[in-house]
Amino acid sequence: MRLVATSSVPKGAILGKAIYNDRGKILLNEGVKLEDKLLSRLEGMGICYIYVKDKKTDDIKLKDPIPVKARRKAMTTIESNFVKIQKDTYVSGSLVIEKASGDFKSLIKYLLSEIKGNQDLLVLLSDVFTYDHYIFTHSLNVTMYTLAIGLEMKLTSKELEILGLGAILHDVGKMKVPEQILLKPGRLTEEEYEEIKKHAEDGFNILRRIPTVPLLAAHCAFQHHERLDGSGYPRGITGDDIHDYGKILAVADVFDAITSNRVYRKAMLPHEALEILYAGSGTLYDTKVVDAFRRAVVIYPVGITVVLSDGRKGVVSRQNKGLSDRPVVRVLEEKGEEIKPYELDLKKELHIIISECDTTFKKN
C-alpha cells in the first residue's frame, strides 16, 4: 500500500488501511472503493493523507504502535478524567487527578512495554484517525513520543514514569480555557492567545497540589512551552533553567501539533516537521533531545513514495531501527521508467539519500 495525499486520489481507488476516530472506532474499512463523495468527505474531515492499495506495494504493511483496542482504553482513561476536571473546581479537579494517577501510571507502564517490544521505530500517523477532541489524542501521542525519546536517552524506569505522567497531564490546564477559544477553527486574536497561554501555569498549579503527582511531572505542564532562547512562556526562562523533562516535552509537543490535522491548517508530514525542529535546534530546542527524537521516531513512514538523490523513485518498505533517515526503499522507477521492483537498504548505501517525498497518487 501507498501513503498518498487524499486530494490526489482518483475515483475508484481502494482504501489500504482502515480509518478510525480517536476512540478506536472504525469509520471506514480497509478495502472500500473510494468514490468522489467519499473522498470529499474525508478531506472535509481533515484527512490529508490516506493509504491506498497498489499492486506493486500491496505486501507492504504498516504496524500500529499500539493495538487499536489498547488505544481505545488509553483514550477513555485520559478523556474521562480530563472531562471531570473540566466540570469541577480546581480543588475537586485535583482530587480527580489524585484518584486517576494510578490509572495513568499503569497506562504509562503499558505504553513503555509496547514501545520496548516494537522492533520498528515509533510511528503515529495522525491521518488514520479523526478527532472528536484533539486534546485527548494529543495527550496520548505526546506521551508516546516523550517515552520514546526518554528511552533513547537512557532514562531510568522511575524517570520514565515521572516523565510519562507529566506528558499525559501536560495540557491539563487547557481544561480551564473557555471552549469557544480552545476549539476555535480560525486564527486566535491576541487576547484569545493570551488566554490559551495561561494553560501552562494553570496546569502546574493544579498538579503541584496533588500528593500522588511528583513535582517534576507538574513542571512538565509548566515548562513545555519554554524555549532555550527565552522566547517561550509562561516565564520566558532560558537554557539550563529549563528542566530536561521540559525540553523533551517541548519537542514531542511541537512535533505532534504540526503533524496533526487541524481545521485551520493541513498536517505536515514527519520529515517536514523534523526540519522545523532542526531549524530550531540549539536555539529553541535542545539538540540532544532533537537527535534522540530523530533516532526513535519514523521520519519517512512506510508506504510513502520517495525520490532518491540519484533520481531513482520508490516506496519506503520498512524501517532501520535507530536510523530514521535511512529506511529500506522498494525501487520502482529508474530514469523515469518503471522497472522490476527491488529493495534498496539505505543503511548500506550511504552515498544515497532521500531528496524528496511524493504523495501524489500514481496507479501501477
Nutshell version of this structure?
This protein is α+β, with helices and mostly antiparallel strands and 364 residues long.
Kindly name the structural category. alpha+beta
CATH topology of the largest domain: Hypothetical protein af1432
CATH superfamily of the largest domain: Hypothetical protein af1432
Average predicted confidence as pLDDT: 87
Main sheet strand line-up: 11-10-9-8-12
What percent of the residues sit in helical stretches (DSSP H or I)?
A: 40-55%
Number of strands: 12
Taking the sheet with the most strands, its summary is: 5 strands, antiparallel
Key phrases:
alpha+beta; 14% strand; five-stranded antiparallel β-sheet; 364 residues; Hypothetical protein af1432
Structure description:
With 364 residues, the chain is an alpha+beta fold. It folds into 3 domains: 2-57, Molybdopterin biosynthesis moea protein, domain 2 (Alpha-Beta Complex), CATH 3.90.105; 68-296, Hypothetical protein af1432, CATH 1.10.3210.10; 305-358. It is 42% helix and 14% strand. It has helices at 36-44, 68-87, 90-117, 134-152, 157-168, 179-182, 190-207, 215-223, 244-258, 270-279, 287-296, and strands at 2-5, 13-14, 19-21, 26-28, 33-34, 49-52, 129-130, 305-308, 313-318, 328-334, 337-345, 354-358. A 5-stranded antiparallel β-sheet has the order 11-10-9-8-12, with no helix packed on it. A 3-stranded mixed β-sheet has the order 4-3-7, with no helix packed on it. A two-stranded antiparallel sheet has the order 1-6. It is globular. The protein starts with a strand and ends in a 6-residue tail after the last strand. Mean pLDDT is 87; it is low at 126-131.
